[in-house]
Design brief:
The structure is a single chain. By secondary structure, this protein is an alpha+beta fold. The protein has a domain of 315 residues: Outer membrane efflux proteins (OEP) (Up-down Bundle), CATH 1.20.1600.10. It has twelve helices and five strands. Strands 1, 2, 3, 4 and 5 form a five-stranded antiparallel sheet that branches.
Protein backbone atom coordinates (compact mmCIF):
# COMPACT_ATOMS: atom_id res chain seq x y z
CA UNK A 1 0.00 0.00 0.00
CA UNK A 2 1.49 3.27 -1.10
CA UNK A 3 1.27 6.09 1.40
CA UNK A 4 1.21 9.66 0.16
CA UNK A 5 4.24 11.77 0.85
CA UNK A 6 2.22 14.06 3.12
CA UNK A 7 1.34 11.10 5.31
CA UNK A 8 5.00 10.06 5.52
CA UNK A 9 6.01 13.60 6.35
CA UNK A 10 3.45 13.81 9.15
CA UNK A 11 4.53 10.44 10.49
CA UNK A 12 8.16 11.52 10.37
CA UNK A 13 7.41 14.74 12.25
CA UNK A 14 5.56 12.83 14.97
CA UNK A 15 8.46 10.37 15.32
CA UNK A 16 11.02 13.14 15.54
CA UNK A 17 9.05 15.09 18.14
CA UNK A 18 8.43 11.95 20.20
CA UNK A 19 12.11 11.00 20.11
CA UNK A 20 13.17 14.52 21.08
CA UNK A 21 10.77 14.65 24.02
CA UNK A 22 11.91 11.24 25.23
CA UNK A 23 15.58 12.12 24.84
CA UNK A 24 15.20 15.37 26.78
CA UNK A 25 13.74 13.61 29.81
CA UNK A 26 16.46 13.02 32.42
CA UNK A 27 15.92 11.30 35.76
CA UNK A 28 18.03 13.62 37.92
CA UNK A 29 17.67 11.47 41.03
CA UNK A 30 18.96 8.45 39.16
CA UNK A 31 21.80 10.47 37.65
CA UNK A 32 22.92 11.75 41.07
CA UNK A 33 22.69 8.23 42.48
CA UNK A 34 25.64 7.28 40.26
CA UNK A 35 27.98 9.06 42.68
CA UNK A 36 25.81 9.15 45.80
CA UNK A 37 25.80 5.34 45.98
CA UNK A 38 29.61 5.39 45.90
CA UNK A 39 29.85 7.98 48.67
CA UNK A 40 27.18 6.43 50.89
CA UNK A 41 28.10 2.76 50.66
CA UNK A 42 30.49 2.90 53.65
CA UNK A 43 28.81 5.58 55.76
CA UNK A 44 25.36 5.48 57.37
CA UNK A 45 22.59 7.83 56.37
CA UNK A 46 22.64 10.90 58.63
CA UNK A 47 19.97 10.92 61.29
CA UNK A 48 17.78 13.91 62.03
CA UNK A 49 19.46 15.86 64.80
CA UNK A 50 17.05 16.96 67.53
CA UNK A 51 17.85 19.90 69.84
CA UNK A 52 19.91 18.75 72.80
CA UNK A 53 20.72 15.39 71.19
CA UNK A 54 24.34 14.27 71.38
CA UNK A 55 26.12 14.64 68.03
CA UNK A 56 28.53 11.72 67.72
CA UNK A 57 31.58 11.74 65.48
CA UNK A 58 30.02 9.21 63.11
CA UNK A 59 26.85 11.29 62.84
CA UNK A 60 28.90 14.39 62.07
CA UNK A 61 30.87 12.54 59.38
CA UNK A 62 27.68 11.12 57.87
CA UNK A 63 26.16 14.61 57.71
CA UNK A 64 29.30 16.03 56.09
CA UNK A 65 29.31 13.19 53.58
CA UNK A 66 25.68 13.83 52.69
CA UNK A 67 25.40 17.62 52.70
CA UNK A 68 28.80 19.01 51.68
CA UNK A 69 28.47 20.69 48.27
CA UNK A 70 32.09 20.08 47.31
CA UNK A 71 31.39 16.35 47.22
CA UNK A 72 28.38 16.92 44.97
CA UNK A 73 30.49 19.07 42.63
CA UNK A 74 33.17 16.40 42.36
CA UNK A 75 30.46 13.76 42.02
CA UNK A 76 29.11 15.57 38.98
CA UNK A 77 32.61 15.47 37.48
CA UNK A 78 32.56 11.70 37.95
CA UNK A 79 29.08 11.47 36.40
CA UNK A 80 30.26 13.52 33.42
CA UNK A 81 33.17 11.11 32.99
CA UNK A 82 30.69 8.21 32.91
CA UNK A 83 28.65 10.08 30.31
CA UNK A 84 31.81 10.70 28.27
CA UNK A 85 32.51 6.95 28.38
CA UNK A 86 29.02 6.23 27.05
CA UNK A 87 29.49 8.87 24.36
CA UNK A 88 32.81 7.33 23.31
CA UNK A 89 31.17 3.91 23.00
CA UNK A 90 28.27 5.34 21.00
CA UNK A 91 30.46 5.87 17.92
CA UNK A 92 30.23 2.13 17.25
CA UNK A 93 26.45 2.20 17.28
CA UNK A 94 24.65 2.85 14.00
CA UNK A 95 23.25 6.31 13.42
CA UNK A 96 19.68 6.33 12.12
CA UNK A 97 17.92 9.38 10.76
CA UNK A 98 15.00 10.42 8.61
CA UNK A 99 15.63 13.44 6.38
CA UNK A 100 12.60 14.54 4.35
CA UNK A 101 13.62 16.82 1.47
CA UNK A 102 11.76 19.14 -0.85
CA UNK A 103 13.56 20.22 -4.03
CA UNK A 104 12.40 22.70 -6.67
CA UNK A 105 14.54 23.44 -9.72
CA UNK A 106 14.40 26.50 -11.93
CA UNK A 107 12.63 25.93 -15.23
CA UNK A 108 14.98 24.50 -17.81
CA UNK A 109 14.63 23.72 -21.48
CA UNK A 110 14.87 20.01 -22.13
CA UNK A 111 13.13 17.45 -24.27
CA UNK A 112 10.11 15.88 -22.66
CA UNK A 113 11.79 12.51 -21.98
CA UNK A 114 14.62 14.26 -20.12
CA UNK A 115 12.22 16.46 -18.20
CA UNK A 116 10.37 13.38 -17.06
CA UNK A 117 13.61 11.85 -15.77
CA UNK A 118 14.51 15.00 -13.83
CA UNK A 119 11.29 16.59 -12.59
CA UNK A 120 11.46 20.19 -11.37
CA UNK A 121 9.77 19.43 -8.02
CA UNK A 122 10.62 16.35 -5.94
CA UNK A 123 9.67 15.22 -2.46
CA UNK A 124 11.81 12.47 -0.89
CA UNK A 125 11.68 10.83 2.55
CA UNK A 126 14.92 8.83 2.99
CA UNK A 127 15.88 6.81 6.07
CA UNK A 128 19.66 6.69 6.56
CA UNK A 129 21.63 4.16 8.62
CA UNK A 130 25.37 4.77 9.01
CA UNK A 131 28.17 2.93 10.79
CA UNK A 132 31.77 4.05 11.29
CA UNK A 133 34.79 2.28 12.78
CA UNK A 134 38.38 3.35 13.42
CA UNK A 135 41.22 2.18 15.64
CA UNK A 136 41.41 5.64 17.20
CA UNK A 137 37.76 5.41 18.33
CA UNK A 138 38.41 2.01 19.93
CA UNK A 139 41.30 3.41 21.94
CA UNK A 140 39.22 6.41 22.98
CA UNK A 141 36.62 4.11 24.54
CA UNK A 142 39.22 2.51 26.80
CA UNK A 143 40.66 5.95 27.60
CA UNK A 144 37.22 7.24 28.61
CA UNK A 145 36.77 4.24 30.91
CA UNK A 146 40.11 4.91 32.59
CA UNK A 147 39.25 8.59 32.98
CA UNK A 148 36.01 7.59 34.72
CA UNK A 149 38.05 5.56 37.20
CA UNK A 150 40.34 8.55 37.65
CA UNK A 151 37.37 10.80 38.47
CA UNK A 152 36.07 8.19 40.91
CA UNK A 153 39.42 8.13 42.72
CA UNK A 154 39.44 11.95 42.85
CA UNK A 155 35.93 11.89 44.34
CA UNK A 156 36.85 9.38 47.04
CA UNK A 157 40.04 11.29 47.83
CA UNK A 158 38.03 14.50 48.31
CA UNK A 159 35.63 12.58 50.55
CA UNK A 160 38.53 11.60 52.82
CA UNK A 161 39.77 15.21 52.91
CA UNK A 162 36.36 16.53 53.96
CA UNK A 163 35.86 13.82 56.56
CA UNK A 164 39.25 14.38 58.18
CA UNK A 165 38.57 18.14 58.30
CA UNK A 166 35.24 17.41 59.96
CA UNK A 167 36.89 15.08 62.48
CA UNK A 168 39.59 17.65 63.25
CA UNK A 169 37.00 20.35 63.86
CA UNK A 170 34.92 17.96 65.97
CA UNK A 171 37.85 17.20 68.26
CA UNK A 172 38.91 20.83 68.28
CA UNK A 173 35.52 21.63 69.83
CA UNK A 174 35.97 18.89 72.44
CA UNK A 175 39.46 20.14 73.20
CA UNK A 176 38.25 23.72 73.63
CA UNK A 177 35.40 22.58 75.87
CA UNK A 178 37.86 20.74 78.11
CA UNK A 179 40.10 23.79 78.20
CA UNK A 180 37.14 25.96 79.10
CA UNK A 181 36.20 23.57 81.90
CA UNK A 182 39.77 23.73 83.28
CA UNK A 183 39.86 27.52 82.97
CA UNK A 184 36.44 27.98 84.58
CA UNK A 185 37.49 25.84 87.52
CA UNK A 186 40.75 27.77 87.79
CA UNK A 187 38.90 31.11 87.67
CA UNK A 188 36.63 30.04 90.54
CA UNK A 189 39.61 28.96 92.64
CA UNK A 190 41.55 32.12 91.88
CA UNK A 191 38.59 34.39 92.59
CA UNK A 192 38.22 32.72 95.98
CA UNK A 193 41.93 33.23 96.56
CA UNK A 194 41.66 36.91 95.59
CA UNK A 195 38.87 37.34 98.13
CA UNK A 196 40.97 35.57 100.74
CA UNK A 197 44.01 37.73 99.98
CA UNK A 198 41.96 40.93 100.27
CA UNK A 199 40.68 39.82 103.67
CA UNK A 200 44.22 39.09 104.81
CA UNK A 201 45.31 42.50 103.52
CA UNK A 202 42.75 44.15 105.77
CA UNK A 203 44.06 42.05 108.63
CA UNK A 204 47.59 43.16 107.79
CA UNK A 205 48.99 39.66 107.26
CA UNK A 206 49.88 40.10 103.57
CA UNK A 207 51.35 42.84 101.47
CA UNK A 208 49.46 44.86 98.81
CA UNK A 209 51.89 43.41 96.27
CA UNK A 210 50.66 39.91 97.04
CA UNK A 211 47.07 40.99 96.42
CA UNK A 212 47.97 42.66 93.13
CA UNK A 213 49.86 39.59 91.88
CA UNK A 214 46.92 37.35 92.78
CA UNK A 215 44.45 39.69 91.05
CA UNK A 216 46.67 39.87 87.95
CA UNK A 217 46.88 36.12 87.62
CA UNK A 218 43.12 35.78 88.01
CA UNK A 219 42.56 38.43 85.30
CA UNK A 220 44.97 36.64 82.91
CA UNK A 221 43.07 33.39 83.42
CA UNK A 222 39.77 35.14 82.66
CA UNK A 223 41.27 36.54 79.44
CA UNK A 224 42.31 33.03 78.44
CA UNK A 225 38.77 31.90 79.18
CA UNK A 226 37.30 34.64 76.95
CA UNK A 227 39.60 33.62 74.08
CA UNK A 228 38.75 29.93 74.52
CA UNK A 229 35.01 30.65 74.41
CA UNK A 230 35.43 32.75 71.27
CA UNK A 231 37.47 30.00 69.63
CA UNK A 232 34.77 27.51 70.58
CA UNK A 233 32.09 29.56 68.84
CA UNK A 234 34.28 29.79 65.74
CA UNK A 235 34.91 26.04 65.77
CA UNK A 236 31.21 25.25 66.09
CA UNK A 237 30.49 27.57 63.17
CA UNK A 238 33.12 25.73 61.14
CA UNK A 239 31.62 22.35 62.01
CA UNK A 240 28.16 23.57 60.98
CA UNK A 241 29.59 24.64 57.62
CA UNK A 242 31.27 21.28 57.05
CA UNK A 243 28.20 19.18 57.85
CA UNK A 244 25.70 21.45 56.10
CA UNK A 245 23.80 22.55 59.21
CA UNK A 246 22.59 26.02 60.13
CA UNK A 247 23.96 25.77 63.68
CA UNK A 248 25.61 23.15 65.87
CA UNK A 249 24.62 23.76 69.48
CA UNK A 250 24.33 20.07 70.33
CA UNK A 251 26.66 18.46 72.85
CA UNK A 252 29.50 16.34 71.45
CA UNK A 253 30.79 13.07 72.85
CA UNK A 254 34.26 11.55 72.75
CA UNK A 255 33.33 7.91 72.05
CA UNK A 256 36.14 7.00 69.67
CA UNK A 257 38.66 4.48 70.97
CA UNK A 258 42.10 4.26 69.45
CA UNK A 259 43.04 0.85 68.03
CA UNK A 260 46.48 -0.64 67.78
CA UNK A 261 48.73 0.95 65.15
CA UNK A 262 50.90 -1.32 62.96
CA UNK A 263 54.47 -0.59 61.94
CA UNK A 264 55.35 2.19 59.52
CA UNK A 265 56.27 -0.20 56.70
CA UNK A 266 52.88 -1.92 56.89
CA UNK A 267 51.11 1.45 56.84
CA UNK A 268 53.01 2.56 53.74
CA UNK A 269 52.13 -0.71 52.02
CA UNK A 270 48.46 -0.14 52.88
CA UNK A 271 48.67 3.41 51.51
CA UNK A 272 49.90 2.06 48.17
CA UNK A 273 46.67 0.07 47.92
CA UNK A 274 44.16 2.50 49.40
CA UNK A 275 45.28 6.10 48.81
CA UNK A 276 42.83 7.42 46.26
CA UNK A 277 45.10 10.15 44.93
CA UNK A 278 47.76 7.51 44.20
CA UNK A 279 45.15 5.32 42.49
CA UNK A 280 44.03 8.39 40.55
CA UNK A 281 47.61 9.05 39.44
CA UNK A 282 47.91 5.44 38.26
CA UNK A 283 44.62 5.80 36.37
CA UNK A 284 45.94 8.98 34.79
CA UNK A 285 48.94 7.04 33.48
CA UNK A 286 46.56 4.46 32.01
CA UNK A 287 44.50 7.18 30.36
CA UNK A 288 47.64 8.73 28.87
CA UNK A 289 48.70 5.34 27.50
CA UNK A 290 45.32 4.95 25.82
CA UNK A 291 45.67 8.49 24.52
CA UNK A 292 48.89 7.45 22.80
CA UNK A 293 47.10 4.46 21.27
CA UNK A 294 44.30 6.73 20.08
CA UNK A 295 46.77 9.13 18.47
CA UNK A 296 48.65 6.31 16.75
CA UNK A 297 45.29 4.95 15.59
CA UNK A 298 44.96 8.00 13.34
CA UNK A 299 47.55 6.37 11.06
CA UNK A 300 45.31 3.36 10.44
CA UNK A 301 42.40 3.15 7.98
CA UNK A 302 38.85 3.84 9.07
CA UNK A 303 35.77 2.13 7.71
CA UNK A 304 32.29 3.49 7.05
CA UNK A 305 29.08 1.80 5.95
CA UNK A 306 26.04 3.77 4.78
CA UNK A 307 22.57 2.46 3.89
CA UNK A 308 19.66 4.62 2.74
CA UNK A 309 16.08 3.52 2.17
CA UNK A 310 13.48 5.85 0.63
CA UNK A 311 10.03 5.72 2.20
CA UNK A 312 8.90 7.99 -0.61
CA UNK A 313 10.97 9.05 -3.64
CA UNK A 314 10.28 11.30 -6.63
CA UNK A 315 13.87 12.13 -7.58
CA UNK A 316 15.75 10.27 -10.28
CA UNK A 317 15.59 7.30 -10.46
CA UNK A 318 12.19 7.20 -8.77
CA UNK A 319 11.91 3.42 -8.81
CA UNK A 320 15.20 2.86 -6.90
CA UNK A 321 14.26 2.59 -3.22
CA UNK A 322 17.60 1.95 -1.50
CA UNK A 323 21.28 2.88 -1.69
CA UNK A 324 24.22 1.09 -0.10
CA UNK A 325 27.79 2.31 0.18
CA UNK A 326 30.98 1.24 1.94
CA UNK A 327 34.17 3.27 2.13
CA UNK A 328 37.68 2.99 3.49
CA UNK A 329 39.64 6.09 4.50
CA UNK A 330 43.38 5.52 4.00
CA UNK A 331 45.35 8.40 5.56
CA UNK A 332 48.39 9.23 3.43
CA UNK A 333 49.42 12.77 4.20
CA UNK A 334 47.95 15.24 6.71
CA UNK A 335 50.69 17.80 6.84
CA UNK A 336 52.25 16.37 9.99
CA UNK A 337 49.06 16.85 12.05
CA UNK A 338 48.87 13.18 13.07
CA UNK A 339 52.52 13.09 14.09
CA UNK A 340 51.96 16.24 16.19
CA UNK A 341 49.05 14.49 17.91
CA UNK A 342 51.28 11.49 18.68
CA UNK A 343 54.03 13.72 20.08
CA UNK A 344 51.49 15.54 22.25
CA UNK A 345 50.08 12.23 23.51
CA UNK A 346 53.57 11.05 24.50
CA UNK A 347 54.16 14.35 26.29
CA UNK A 348 50.98 13.76 28.32
CA UNK A 349 52.18 10.24 29.07
CA UNK A 350 55.55 11.46 30.37
CA UNK A 351 53.76 14.02 32.52
CA UNK A 352 51.47 11.33 33.90
CA UNK A 353 54.47 9.16 34.85
CA UNK A 354 56.14 12.08 36.63
CA UNK A 355 52.90 12.94 38.43
CA UNK A 356 52.52 9.32 39.57
CA UNK A 357 56.10 9.25 40.84
CA UNK A 358 55.62 12.54 42.69
CA UNK A 359 52.33 11.40 44.22
CA UNK A 360 53.86 8.11 45.33
CA UNK A 361 56.72 9.87 47.12
CA UNK A 362 54.33 12.39 48.67
CA UNK A 363 52.11 9.59 49.99
CA UNK A 364 55.07 7.80 51.61
CA UNK A 365 56.21 11.07 53.15
CA UNK A 366 52.74 11.95 54.47
CA UNK A 367 52.35 8.51 56.04
CA UNK A 368 55.74 8.79 57.71
CA UNK A 369 55.06 12.31 59.03
CA UNK A 370 51.59 11.33 60.31
CA UNK A 371 53.06 8.21 61.95
CA UNK A 372 55.78 10.25 63.67
CA UNK A 373 53.20 12.81 64.85
CA UNK A 374 51.05 10.06 66.35
CA UNK A 375 53.98 8.36 68.09
CA UNK A 376 55.30 11.69 69.40
CA UNK A 377 51.83 12.53 70.72
CA UNK A 378 51.83 9.32 72.76
CA UNK A 379 55.19 10.21 74.25
CA UNK A 380 54.07 13.78 75.01
CA UNK A 381 50.93 12.46 76.66
CA UNK A 382 52.96 10.36 79.06
CA UNK A 383 55.33 13.22 79.88
CA UNK A 384 52.47 15.71 80.31
CA UNK A 385 50.75 13.39 82.77
CA UNK A 386 53.97 13.26 84.77
CA UNK A 387 54.22 17.05 84.51
CA UNK A 388 50.66 17.51 85.83
CA UNK A 389 51.33 15.16 88.75
CA UNK A 390 54.54 17.00 89.60
CA UNK A 391 52.93 20.45 89.19
CA UNK A 392 50.00 19.44 91.39
CA UNK A 393 52.37 18.22 94.09
CA UNK A 394 54.50 21.39 93.80
CA UNK A 395 51.45 23.61 94.10
CA UNK A 396 50.27 21.68 97.16
CA UNK A 397 53.65 22.18 98.82
CA UNK A 398 53.80 25.89 97.88
CA UNK A 399 50.27 26.45 99.18
CA UNK A 400 51.03 24.72 102.48
CA UNK A 401 54.30 26.65 102.85
CA UNK A 402 52.51 29.94 102.24
CA UNK A 403 49.79 29.14 104.78
CA UNK A 404 52.32 28.49 107.56
CA UNK A 405 54.46 31.47 106.58
CA UNK A 406 57.43 29.55 105.18
CA UNK A 407 56.78 30.47 101.55
CA UNK A 408 55.87 33.57 99.59
CA UNK A 409 52.67 34.24 97.69
CA UNK A 410 54.71 34.62 94.49
CA UNK A 411 55.96 31.05 94.82
CA UNK A 412 52.40 29.82 95.21
CA UNK A 413 51.25 31.84 92.16
CA UNK A 414 54.06 30.48 90.04
CA UNK A 415 53.22 26.92 91.11
CA UNK A 416 49.54 27.51 90.39
CA UNK A 417 50.31 28.95 86.95
CA UNK A 418 52.45 25.94 86.08
CA UNK A 419 49.73 23.57 87.23
CA UNK A 420 47.13 25.36 85.11
CA UNK A 421 49.39 25.29 82.05
CA UNK A 422 50.17 21.58 82.49
CA UNK A 423 46.46 20.72 82.91
CA UNK A 424 45.56 22.65 79.75
CA UNK A 425 48.31 20.91 77.75
CA UNK A 426 47.27 17.50 79.02
CA UNK A 427 43.61 18.11 78.12
CA UNK A 428 44.60 19.31 74.65
CA UNK A 429 47.05 16.48 73.97
CA UNK A 430 44.55 13.80 74.99
CA UNK A 431 42.33 14.84 72.09
CA UNK A 432 45.21 15.80 69.81
CA UNK A 433 46.31 12.18 69.88
CA UNK A 434 42.99 11.12 68.38
CA UNK A 435 43.28 13.83 65.75
CA UNK A 436 46.76 12.57 64.87
CA UNK A 437 45.41 9.04 64.54
CA UNK A 438 42.63 10.17 62.20
CA UNK A 439 45.20 12.08 60.17
CA UNK A 440 47.28 8.91 59.99
CA UNK A 441 44.23 6.97 58.79
CA UNK A 442 43.69 9.66 56.16
CA UNK A 443 47.33 9.42 55.07
CA UNK A 444 46.99 5.65 54.69
CA UNK A 445 43.70 6.07 52.82
CA UNK A 446 41.44 4.10 55.18
CA UNK A 447 39.77 6.93 57.10
CA UNK A 448 36.26 6.11 55.87
CA UNK A 449 36.64 2.45 56.82
CA UNK A 450 38.15 3.42 60.17
CA UNK A 451 35.30 5.68 61.25
CA UNK A 452 32.56 3.49 59.75
CA UNK A 453 33.90 0.26 61.24
CA UNK A 454 33.80 -1.48 57.85
CA UNK A 455 36.83 -3.23 56.33
CA UNK A 456 38.44 -1.64 53.28
CA UNK A 457 36.78 -2.64 50.03
CA UNK A 458 39.10 -0.96 47.58
CA UNK A 459 40.88 -2.34 44.52
CA UNK A 460 44.31 -3.95 44.94
CA UNK A 461 47.47 -1.98 44.49
CA UNK A 462 47.96 -0.99 40.85
CA UNK A 463 51.00 -2.20 39.00
CA UNK A 464 53.81 0.28 38.81
CA UNK A 465 53.61 2.13 35.50
CA UNK A 466 56.16 0.97 32.99
CA UNK A 467 58.60 3.03 31.04
CA UNK A 468 57.42 5.38 28.32
CA UNK A 469 57.79 3.71 24.89
CA UNK A 470 59.39 5.60 22.05
CA UNK A 471 57.11 7.72 19.84
CA UNK A 472 55.79 6.30 16.61
CA UNK A 473 57.47 7.19 13.36
CA UNK A 474 55.51 9.53 11.13
CA UNK A 475 54.03 8.04 7.96
CA UNK A 476 52.91 11.28 6.46
Amino acid sequence: MKIAWRGWLALTAVAIIGTALTGCTVDNAREAAAYRNVLDQRLPQPATLAPGQVLTLRDALAMANRHNERLALSGEDYLQALIAKDRAASVFLPSVGIRPTYTELESFAAPAPVGNLFPRITKDVPVNVGLHFSASDAANIVKADVMARFRLAVLLNLQSDILVSTAQTYYLILRLERQIAVLENSVRVQDDRVGDMRAKLKAGTVRPLDVSLTEGQAAATRVALVDARRNLRTARTGLAFLIGAARVDNPLADEYELPQVPALEALQADAARHRQDLLAAAALVGAAEKGVAAAIGEYFPSFSVDFTYFLSRQSFPPDSRWLFGASVDLPIFKGGATYADVRTAYSYLRQAHQYHSLTERQVNREVEVAYDDFQASGQRLKELQDEVDAARHAFSLADQAHEIGLGTNLERLVAQDRLLGAELQLAAETLNRKIFYLQLSRAVGVLVEEVSGKPPALPPAPEAPGAVPPPAKPVG
